[in-house]
């Protein structure tokens, strides 16, 4: 995607060397900061995280253009790719890089001084009450001008495009100060760009284009989240959290980074997307972990006028046919506000127009697009030909479309046209000079006389209605963007395939092979490890995949593995989960490489899994049946808290899921009898599988172990022994020998009883998972379970013969 290019390019434009010793974090009277690139020309925060100094962008082979401008700015000290986070003089850059000096002026303000002319290029313009001030670059990246007693000015009050952790976006209601994010003009020019993100005084977040056009809002804050961004709810996160304050004095939104060792960047990008990225030491590169809107083509006017945005192409922005890029230099640097212009001017209305139809402008059709903004509905035009004529006879009309909504015409610039790959697009006819229209696309429409069309047009003009931007999903922007939320506490992240390929070192470290694909270990940074699942069978469309992943991704519970994000490119379908350092329950129960889990841990794991399943069955909006509960799908975090993996796969995989499941049928292991017999499944199939897992937790070995079945002696089948020994009261002998008798026998008995109830042949006899939790916690008492019929089937014996042993 072009956006990552943007970020990467930003990085490539580096000119500074980060290593420097003995740097100070303070500018004081008489101790300024020079513009030359010696190491003394920058401040470094005390924690070495941020640096401030003069920088220059654009000395790179990537661009033919060198930006002559030097700025004063702040960047991450440890990131070797220069990435400006804040700049002081974006609107008044310095031309000669050796001339500026940052110093404290006689009135106590911090100023950039042109040493050659002794003129002030930029000043903090604060109401200083003393000239005894110092400017300090703090550990949070805030540049503060203060005296011993007062703060006069701080850079956090004047943000540019970066939302620093700990900074506030919003209003100081007393002073009227509005802190908002403004995108930059282009990839190297630090002047303000066209996109603005701000809280309004009423506390609602807005995304604006060109300061006036509202292109998204967050809805009101309801105490927990912005009403149009419900995905913010829940999930305190180990890495980040957010805060919202609205009182008499101020209204603001902020985010907090809880781990100082990671470098997270939250920016309003040149293209208008909110982007959260993380610096990866391994690859020495930024990795985008969150983007909103996810697709660049969904950003209002991102390609400029007379363009077609195509998300499946790189670059995504292209001129319409018959048009060329207006300003190649700006375009290349990511500033596409001027978009494209006509190769051949249209006929001058009323002068060149004649009855000779060969000379009139023509229409060129573009198929399957999202129509441009600001359509005018022409109700009087009842046919496509009418619609075409209505446009043709109006000098300023540039395009028309005749579709489900009748006739729409456009005047002036056409913006926001996007190629729709999902079949919801419409046909747009763009007006071009006759010589521009490719012959194959030439439309034949000579039927209607000009005179008649003029009449129709006059009537239609009276009925003009401004079209609504129906496709533009307002909201959901601000809140999601503003959070540097690496673990996806507020939604599911979108990953690029190349980033996952890099994070997993080309899928080299395989963690396991599940039912639906292989799982690989991935590293975002030293402190962030991921489990990346590459799906084999996901064949459904991208839109549906995204939708299902998002709906599964908001399901969060302490006993469910968190779905961090996904990747969906071409036919690649990957799911990204939090990494579980203690592997799966299978490893610890059955494998030599595992550790012997003591009884208390086993009991807690049993309860945790039950809680997770109860939540899946009843706690979330759409009930989810897991369908594949087994020790391999119960993962353990660093504290051995159990987390159920692979839930929601039926949603995510669609039809492929039942296919994968069919091939698993017939294995005795964990599948409920109704499933094996092909009957419709309910959540009770999970209860059955869970019961089977409980037996294995007690015994520490597989129920379906070959030895039980080899010689037809099913009496050794562990669930059978349990049913028997529950009656005889000798449950101590059931417990895994590796525990050397160290187990709470009350708990063992409870677990065994629950397990026997769970594997009852009839699903109606099995308890719900909610009940199971209550039983295990001792909140409800349990009757002695009947011996399950399935066991009778296996042994071929009668229940009496079992219970009497
Ligand atoms: C740079 O400019 C030269 C000459 O103006 C041109 O031939 C070349 O294609 C340009 N390179 C890029 C990357 O735009
Ligand atoms: C600060 O102000 C005092 C008098 O108000 C003056 O004597 C002194 O020179 C000033 N210091 C600077 C650095 O301008
Ligand atoms: C500076 O102080 C004056 C007078 O106290 C006040 O009118 C003005 O608004 C202040 N300026 C700023 C930037 O605070
Ligand atoms: C932004 O708005 C200003 C004033 O309304 C207008 O002059 C300018 O052309 C607009 N910019 C773009 C790129 O449309």
Describe this structure in words.
The chain is an alpha+beta fold. The protein folds into 4 domains: 3-294, Bulb-type lectin domain (Agglutinin, subunit A), CATH 2.90.10.10; 307-440, no CATH class; 493-578, 2-Layer Sandwich (Phosphorylase Kinase, domain 1); 587-804, Transferase(Phosphotransferase) domain 1 (Transferase(Phosphotransferase), domain 1), CATH 1.10.510. It has 19 helices and 42 strands. The strands form 11 sheets. It has a 7-stranded antiparallel beta sheet, with helices on one face. Strands 35-39-40-38-37-36 form a 6-stranded mixed beta sheet, with helices on both faces. A 4-stranded antiparallel beta sheet has the order 1-10-11-12, with no helix packed on it. The termini are far apart. The model is unreliable at 1-21, 442-490 and 795-805 (pLDDT under 50). The site of one 2-acetamido-2-deoxy-beta-D-glucopyranose has 3 residues, from loops.
